[in-house]
């Protein structure tokens, strides 16, 4: 980061990957050649972590976490210093390509992205921003509340203004970076940060790509959409008709409003279906299967799902076109056949006994009717007597 001119920087990035291992992620970041340190105390709940200059890569999840998604993830956390280390040490540093990769498919999930504007030219004045933040009618904002905090730093009052909750998916943070860093050599340094999480981070990156990677336009557009400071007019009590304050107009320039919330049709796929089935309804489904058996549970599910959700219909059509969908009656017939054969209660060792000396699955299936006598007996009885 140059301290001689105003700049917008990426100042925090956290994401998970379902498809990449540790070495893959090192290569993606262009940091395979640097010396990583293994952390004695794993980071963020993972069982293994390595660290390099503000960048942490984590993998391995305790069984107590549960869920297939978490068990398969590798996590990358780049703090502010980590982002600078990426820019300095990476053999192929390219923010545009990295962020484009992270929104390219469902294998990646951006959990946090911070984008910061560093002002060295007195465009942002903390005295003005702080005082105007106390005047509710001087702001037009979609945030439910704006709040401010006073802290003590180096025996001076350091003022930080927040808009949005620290735990929300979108928050603005404005503070005196000069005081925080104790940079007496600088005359002015104020930082305006946008902190984004999950869906808001994803949409910000998509807007960034759609706007030809013009970070200034997207940064200012997001701020303009969610918060603007207006100048009171004597003859008009409606502050939404007031013009922008001069400093704020200079700050955002000619940016157009950019919303980060987009209501869009969900692109449903087999992975998301699995997540819904196993993570959201997995406990109930597993218990019901244990209670009534697989065959009856499947029959009940087909019977009760008469109301077809459009996203499921679309997914079934896509799977059917790829010959990946088992027809309903075919599935039920298979389950009925397996149950009649006693295979629903057959343990693994018994099935292995059936498969002995068989070269292919066809020969296994051809032997099943001979091995099982459907006269009320269980396959275990048949195998025991064979």
UniProtKB/TrEMBL annotation:
<keyword id="KW-0648">Protein biosynthesis</keyword>
<dbReference type="InterPro" id="IPR003491">
    <property type="entry name" value="REP-like_C"/>
</dbReference>
<protein>
    <submittedName>
        <fullName>Replication initiation factor domain-containing protein</fullName>
    </submittedName>
</protein>
<dbReference type="GO" id="GO:0003743">
    <property type="term" value="F:translation initiation factor activity"/>
</dbReference>
<dbReference type="Pfam" id="PF02486">
    <property type="entry name" value="Rep_trans"/>
</dbReference>
<keyword id="KW-0396">Initiation factor</keyword>
<feature type="domain" description="Replication initiation protein-like C-terminal">
    <location>
        <begin position="110"/>
        <end position="283"/>
    </location>
</feature>
